[in-house]
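Subject: Sanity check before I submit

Could someone independently write out the structure tokens for this chain? I want to compare against mine line by line before I put it in a report. The sequence has 265 residues.
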Amino acid sequence: MRVAVCQLNARDDRERNLSEARGLLERAAAAGAELAVLPEYVDYLGRAKGMPPPEGVDGEFARFFAAAAGELGIWVHAGSFHETGPDDEHTYNTSLVFSPAGERVAVYRKIHLYDVEIPGRVSYQESRTVAAGEDVVVAPVAGVPLGLSICYDLRFPELYRRLADGGAQVVVVPAAFMMHTGRDHWEVLLRARAIENQCYVVAAGQIGDHEPDRTCFGRSMVIDPWGTVIAQAPDVVGIVTADLDLSRVEKIRTEVPSLANRRLF
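---
Independent answer below. Compare away.
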């Protein structure tokens, strides 16, 4: 399977964001990708007061990427978007996956929310505006079990073990990692999740500046089940592709049978 990670600089202009995402998907299709993965919050990154109204999983955002998948004839993981939430105060952070026929085959809502309170330094409560999802999702994509996660989920290895237990051979991580954490943690965590679960990890990140005065790290990459980075995007908007050898998953799981040797306490 050839995959493409699409590195985007989404900002506070939804129409521009979608247009640039479509262009990246076209480049992925031209490069022969069967699956293209976009980053977290493709629809909007900016100040909360300017955010367009959230919408459902059959709304304009979904129709846009369903059409792109169908017209380009590829599997599209549409990163994530602001989905209508359980009440007027909360949205969901939601990933959608579309088949080459333009059919929606998976919905995943981000489970782990970033809440931090450091007196005098940082006060950020994602849960004030975003509701947590509950379902662990593994979806068949081109015959390959694909595990879904989003950004901050990356710091919680138990989710990825659940995905591996559910049959995932490839895990996707659309993200908008900030520069200060991305420098030290992004690659380390991605490689750890690949090594622990002996699966491919396909991580698409936002890159560059957006309001309010934030910068995303980028460095989208693909990692094999041994933990080796086999493709990495440069620090610009664009795509990078990698060919996944799914037989390598079974080979590594056989030769280093840590999943089979696991003991539960």
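---
OP: Matches mine. For the report I'm noting this point. The chain has one domain: 2-255.
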